[in-house]
Specification:
This protein has 23 helices and no strands. The chain is mostly helical. Helix 1 packs across helix 2.
Length: 440
């Protein structure tokens, strides 16, 4: 029998339907697997027959097709993909994870130059990291392999494959969420060179990668094509700000954090939760907004001397923060109405409570940043905000409603500045919020 027969042209008849780098189509593969399942299906055997007695006779055409599938599985990408599918089963995932040699081979695949192989490797790693029973095995294995850091950074900083970038981002997000020590190591990394991907398998030196610029580059690649991917990379940045070293890695970059601030500022002011969006959009964007505003808040609190944090440049950001609060108020009213209509639907109520929880997180982060920014406003900044339409009675009332009483000092400080810029508006706000007038 010919062990490596040439496939007929019908097997790859549809352009773009090929399995990996082979000439076989997905349709052909699925048809062969379906036929094989039908052949070995228990329904085809006697109920009383033992496994030893069951002998399935395959015709020559089926044998040839199975040989082709076997040969095709020797493709590196497909091998890793098969392991990724198998790892979805807990017992098999544990067996794969405990095999030290296989674990090292899989991590080495992250330095491959083939995007499909990298994608399947990342998918397999994410599957294993999502299994609590073996997650620590992979975290420890990755921590002991410095080349993983360089290969991951290389992918994030140079790949234009959005699907790959999203999956690699999910792996990094999961790693940082699981292990703070590993995250700290990666934050401090970048001072030594290591072996990276090379087309001809010869060692290739990589530049000294820093984690923050790599994350930003990947975020820029996915922002337009994949909202979920943007959410992932913004959450990675947020995780960095949970430790002092992470905040310093952002604000002490060569540009002082300007690139990070500019990207996040642009997302909030020009892409997310825009004036022509319906208020319900804040429900869809609540997690990515929370991550972005959390990073901006950490940067603003630690780098008030940087030029990009000067208030004369950030009045649009204040306007965007207030708009987010306004949209949340609109969603809150909808939630109350929906709750009344579905009081008897327990599942619906559970989902609603989860949405409220995430909105509360967003509101808390938004209010913290807004209060800090209002405290920095001067008379000139305030006049500019009034002129640009970011500040008026409606927006200021929304801000006060959400900031009081927790951020009373910030509101009081802003009101004093506002009184110098627009006495009438300040008086009107005092009437609407009597507690401010008492303390005046």
């Amino acid at each position: 029998m010919d062990r490596n027969p040439s496939p007929p042209s019908s097997e790859a008849e549809e352009e773009g339907d090929a399995v990996g780098n082979t000439v076989y189509s997905k349709h052909w593969l699925f048809s062969i697997l379906t036929r094989l399942i039908e052949v070995i299906s228990p329904e085809k055997t006697e109920p009383t027959a033992s496994p030893e007695e069951i002998q399935t006779e395959l015709d020559e055409e089926m044998e040839n097709d199975i040989c082709k599938v076997w040969d095709m599985s020797m493709d590196e990408e497909i091998c890793v993909g098969i392991l990724g599918n198998m790892a979805c089963f807990q017992d098999i995932c544990m067996s794969i994870s405990k095999d030290e040699n296989l674990g090292q081979v899989l991590l080495q695949r992250l330095c491959d130059s083939d995007s499909p192989t990298l994608l399947e490797t990342s998918r397999l790693l994410l599957t294993c990291l999502s299994q609590p029973e073996v997650a620590n095995v992979w975290v420890e294995r990755i921590r002991e392999n410095p080349s993983v850091y360089d290969c991951v950074c290389f992918i994030m900083s140079s790949s234009t494959n959005v699907e790959l970038l999203v999956k690699v981002g999910e792996v990094v997000d999961k790693l940082f969420d699981l292990d703070e020590e590993l995250m700290l190591n990666w934050i401090k990394n970048g001072t030594c060179r290591s072996v990276g991907p090379s087309v001809d398998d010869s060692p290739e030196e990589l530049p000294d990668f820093k984690i923050v610029p790599c994350i930003l580059e990947a975020a820029k690649q996915v922002r337009s094509d994949n909202p979920e991917g943007l959410d992932v990379y913004m959450h990675i940045l947020q995780l960095l700000t949970t430790v002092d070293e992470g905040i310093q890695a952002i604000v002490q970059a060569p540009d002082g954090g300007k690139e990070t601030w500019s990207l996040l500022y642009d997302l909030v002011c020009h892409e997310l939760c825009q004036p022509d969006d319906p208020p319900i959009i804040v429900q869809e964007q609540k997690t990515v907004l929370a991550s972005i505003l959390s990073v901006l808040s950490a940067m603003f609190a630690s780098q008030t001397e940087q030029e990009y944090t000067k208030m004369r440049k950030n009045m649009p950001l204040i306007g965007s923060l207030i708009r987010i609060l306004q949209y949340m108020e609109g969603c809150g009213k909808r939630s109350v109405d929906n709750s009344k209509e579905s009081e008897q639907q327990e599942t619906g109520r559970a989902d609603l409570n989860e949405e409220d929880f995430h909105l509360k997180i967003l509101k808390d982060i938004c209010c913290e940043l807004l209060s800090n920014m209002l405290q920095e406003l001067t008379k000139e900044n305030t006049l500019e905000g009034l002129h640009q339409g970011h500040l008026n009675e409606q927006t200021c009332s929304c801000a006060f409603q959400n900031l009081l009483p927790l951020y009373f000092a910030s509101v009081e400080s802003f009101l004093e500045v506002l009184r110098e810029a627009d006495q009438t508006l300040a008086d009107n706000l005092e009437k609407r919020f009597p507690s401010l007038k008492v303390h005046a």
